[in-house]
Amino acid sequence: MRDNAERFGLPASLENLVLVQVKESLLGKHYHYQQMLLELPVDGAEIVVSLGKDGQLLQIYNTSRHVSEDMEEEAVNQLQLKAQLSSESALDRAWTNMRVQNPLVDLPKSEQVWVPVKGGFQLSYKVSISAQMPTGGFVQYINAQDGSLIDSYSTSMPRNGKFEERTLAARQLALGSPLDRKAETAAIERQKRLAQPVASLVPSGINGSGFVFDPDPRTTLNNDSLTDTSAASAFDSAYFNKPLRDITLNGGVYSLAGPYVNIKDIEAPNIAPSTTTNGAWTAKRGSDAFDDTNVYFHLDQNQRYIQSLGFTNIINRPFDVDTNGVNGDDNSHYSYGGSTDYLAFGHGCVNDSEDADVILHEYGHGIQRNINTSWSGGDTGAMGEGFGDYWAGSYSYSTPNGPTYHPEWVFTWDGHSNCWGGRALNRTDARYNSSRTYSAHQSITEGGVSFSSDELWSAPLFQSLTSLMANGKSREDVDKIILQAHFGLGSGVRMPAMATAIVNAAHNLFPNDATYENTFKEKFQAQNIISSLPTGPAINETESNNTQATANVISTTNTTVNATIASSSDVDFFKVTVPAGKTLTATMTPNSTSDYDLELYNSAGTRLASSIAGTGAADVVTRANSGTTSVDFYVKVIYYSGGTGSTNGKYSLVAAW
To answer: Which residues of 428-467 form beta strands (DSSP E)?
Structure first.
């Protein structure tokens, strides 16, 4: 690895990198290296090296930070010479910021990290506090010197933003006094000591049964008019009696605790999970017991489906779920923090736990977080919601009426009514703007079209699914591609990078069938998430352009450059002047038998980004110009393996801003 540091875009010295985890996927292994500074982690700074099963490099995801001598000297001053808050003081500050008014669901955690700031790094406490809703969970970065709040983000992910923004600013508006931190911490410590053992990882072989909706009563009955207040008899034909696999039998009592799902009481209104003495749950909607069986069935089935795709390390454990939580609100959420993560479903209007779309949407958050523990920043807010919507829609589409009964709807039963509006999977009129950052549930107007940020991401995923299935491909293959693409990434992922990862996963999983990658590429291009070819002028590369000083000039956005790697020692430079407020996205696509790499430099010759995607796969680098004047960037194409010359060395480069 050290011998290839220059090619990989890694720091010249690797002593400040610590291997923190290794993830395995269908294509290979992904090595996550945390950047350290003075033996403390630099938050959000890591390098993920993905190697194929044959040992070949698949990709590098690099968010490491440059550390100059001056920066390191200032860090030493902060750590050794300047006064610091105690960890307890940092916890107190974070508790006050959150106005914690609901019981904790996990022990608060505080650790020292470096937060990248302009011109260097700030010593900080990274504080995680997870409480029941509506307080919810947050990660906060508290300045270790003066106690000020540097940044924060929510670790509770609701299916919509109906009731409040998940921000600390919104928490400041909460009425009433915060709870006592030390008393609440003691209470959760006591609760953990007294907690019952978790469900066994070993399948029990004991199967129960229970009534469920599959996926929801409207879809099953093909009935738009069904509402929460419809007569109980209107739902009779919508119930299915399904097996509840590998449940627990203890002392003659059956409970819904299995190797992949553990129904338990986590949040208010604090109602104990249902049990039976014969393993048969016969309750229907309106009973907590029905909510328990509906959620257990769908999550257990979905986890087994994920494993059938070949992924055995995505929430492959008893996953805690509260089917009657969220303090009674009409919402649901995935929450993580400290040592645990869980789901909770609310009961306002239509019970969220009655709709498979809600159940699988929230599970989608868990899927992403369990693949990539750094999933935060960038466009991950909108992509998290959009993926959850897709994951729910993918399952509903596979059911008997799924392709014909409003396949464009997600939350088909819980939403699209007077409860709330739901979301759509067919917003192909939504367009990506690289100058924006897309957070969850964000209302966007682009080109006169209004849409949810979540829909911008779910649309190309779901449209790829329906197009590929219409072309004879399986849902399983499409889901496999999308799950695979989440491996090997870190924090701060933007939509173009994630889209490119999906296209490359399609290429690598199905190298002999370009239908998959071409379909995904077409759908992402249609919504401007990745550059389409051609949308601007086309030019030909001219030699010699082997240095920044002799770089070919690209002067118009969406320009396609038709170029050639002349020999294994050839490098090609292209100069791009990016206006203020714009973001450059450069996409290089080699010929199908070659592996060329892509790098981005500033005018001083400092490398800003790099991309190494593999044979035949597209490389993408991006960089924002957040200043008030135009900036010159230099795109560099490098040979790694494959063909060269006018016949076998062709590639295309698209520069857009």
So the answer is: 443-446, 449-452
